[in-house]
Amino acid sequence: MPPSIAERILQPQVPEQRRILFLAEYAPDESAPCAKTFPGDGGYPAYHFSIWQLLGELGYQMRSSAQPTSALFARGNVDFVFSLYNRMPLNQSEVLVSAFCEYARIPYLGAPPGIRALAEDKWLSKLAARALGIPCPDGIPYSDEAALEAAPLFAGPYFIKDRFGAGSEGITAQSLQDTWSGAKAVAAQRLREGVPVLVEQFAPGIDVTVPILGDTMPLILGHVHPRSDKAGNILTEDLKMDDPLGYELLMLDGVADDICRDALALWSATGPMDYLRIDYRYDPHTGQRQFLEFNLCCYLGADGAIGLAAAAHGLSLSGVLGHVVEHALGRQCGSRQHLKWVL
Fold first, then answer.
1. Which of 106, 58, 40, 98 is nearest to 79 (CA)?
2. CATH superfamily name and code, 138-202
């Protein structure tokens, strides 16, 4: 019998000898280690503080900074960068910290910059998934209003989303439109705000996310449904940020093997990664799945999809954090020894 997921979880090795730089917008100040205040919704300070605290309780030596550029100057002072930065006021911000770490040659959490860039682009990631045999909804990207004069070749209903970005940013109830004229108006408004958009053929059903931890082969923790009370069961930005309805575990016996094959195909092409989610639309009536995106800096809280799915395997959030740190260190051990500066 193969080992269970709990048996495959990596344990921290000599954590007292590992110096971690924790990067997050609301990372606690080293001189005053407590949760910061936040003027809006979302609970980010408490979330960032809890992850920082748990890593320290695992025995790692913790440094902390709210400045992503700290990674550029950390070489020699830290052994690993644990970054939760994925929303910054710049385009394709998820790539920044990993690129800094590659420049400074410091191991870091997540995946290489090129893979982070692929995951950040909801259009190119679908093209890659489709090339791997993973079903995806039809779609077309738009970067200027003039291009909207050419309607998609696929029929509605239409779903309009930001091409880049995290946390379902920009998605509202108006993102689902029955007609092209309605979709065109929503897309045009977003383009006027300077945001490239992706228009897709709406996939009926519900959202299903698949939390995965890195290992020699990916550890698929289960299938989780983020609840929605919106038309079409869509997941809007306010639902993502406030999370009033929460998550539930689903048993997807009829499609579980297909999702496993998807994960293995994506992993073979883009891995190794330390932790991720693969997001789908799933139609319970037909059993059809449609790939939406994969997320490499997803929420790690105990009340989120990863925490919920991990708990079903008897795993604590501390266990998850220790595993992803150790996997990240292991996959990057010696990976830069062949490099030299060319000046």
1. 106
2. ATP-grasp fold, A domain (3.30.1490.20)
> If DSSP codes are grouped into helix, strand and coil, which group holds residue 39?
coil
Taking Cα atoms as reference points, which of 318, 295, 316, 304 lies closest to residue 111?
295
Asked whether the bond before 211 is cis by omega within 30 degrees of 0, the reply is: no
Q: Do domains 5-110 and 138-202 have the same CATH topology?
A: no
Band (pLDDT 50/70/90 cuts) for residue 237 is: confident
Computed over its alpha carbons, how large is the radius of gyration of the chain? Answer: 20
Backbone angles phi, psi at 333, to 5 degrees: -65, 115
Continuous segment of H or E residues that includes residue 250: strand 247-250
Name the residue among 203, 195, 130 with its Cα closest to residue 163: 195
pLDDT tens, 293-334? Answer: 999 988 999 999 999 999 999 999 999 999 999 999 999 987
User: What letter represents residue 104's amino acid?
Assistant: A
Residue type for 324, please? V
Confidence band, pLDDT 50/70/90 cuts, at residue 223? very high
